[in-house]
Amino acid sequence: MDDKYFVLKNEYKYINFIKDCFVLNDNKCILSFYDNKIFDYDFFIDSIKNELNKKESYLLLHQLVNNIFINDQYLMIEDIELMEMMSVLFLKYSNLFAFHFIKYPAVLAWGYDQSFPFICKNSADLSIYKNIAKNQKLFLR
C-alpha cells in the first residue's frame, strides 16, 4: 500500500487533529493557497467539485459569495464545519493550500510522500500541538 492509502485509511485521525487545532486557536484559521498568482476560483471548484456533497458545496459557495477570501489567495475560516470540509480536501488535495493557526502560531503544510510538515513559532506551542496529535494517535516530528 502507498502513503496516500495510509492517510485516507486514517483520515478521521488527521481531520480530528486539524479540528482540535482549530478549536485551540479560538475557531480561527487562515488557509494560504500555494499558487502565487490571483486565486483561480474556476480551477479550485473544478478540482474539488466531485469531493463535495450538497451541504459542503453550499458552505464553500457562501465563502465565495461573501468574499471571505483575503487578497484572493488567503481564506479565513471561522466555522467548524467549513474547517472539517477543508481538512478533508487538504488530505485529498494537499498541494492546494496550507493551514495557518494564529493564537498558537503554527503552519500545517503539504510535504512529499504524504508527510505534513508542522511548523511552530516556539517549543512551548509545539508541545501543545504534540499533545493534540498524541490524543489522535498521530506524531509530530
Topology overview:
Blueprint: H1 3-9, H2 11-24, E1 29-33, H3 41-48, H4 54-65, E2 69-70, E3 74-77, H5 80-92, E4 97-101, E5 106-108, E6 118-120, H6 123-135
Short synopsis of the structure:
By secondary structure, this protein is an alpha+beta fold. The chain is built from six helices and six strands, in the order H-H-E-H-H-E-E-H-E-E-E-H.
Can you put this structure into words, describing what you see?
With 141 residues, this protein is an alpha+beta fold. The chain has one domain (3-135). It has helices at residues 3-9, 11-24, 41-48, 54-65, 80-92, 123-135; strands at 29-33, 69-70, 74-77, 97-101, 106-108, 118-120. The protein has a six-stranded antiparallel β-sheet with strand order 2-3-1-4-5-6. A hairpin with a 4-residue loop joins strand 4 (97-101) and strand 5 (106-108). Helix 2 packs across helix 5 (80-92). It starts with a helix and ends in a 6-residue tail after the last helix.
Any descriptors?
141 residues
Shape: globular
Euclidean distance between termini CA atoms = 23 Å
- Round the mean pLDDT to the nearest integer and report it: 80
How would you classify the helix and strand content by structural class?
Answer: alpha+beta
The number of strands is 6
Q: What proportion strand?
A: 15-25%
Count of alpha/pi helices: 6
Radius of gyration: 15 Å
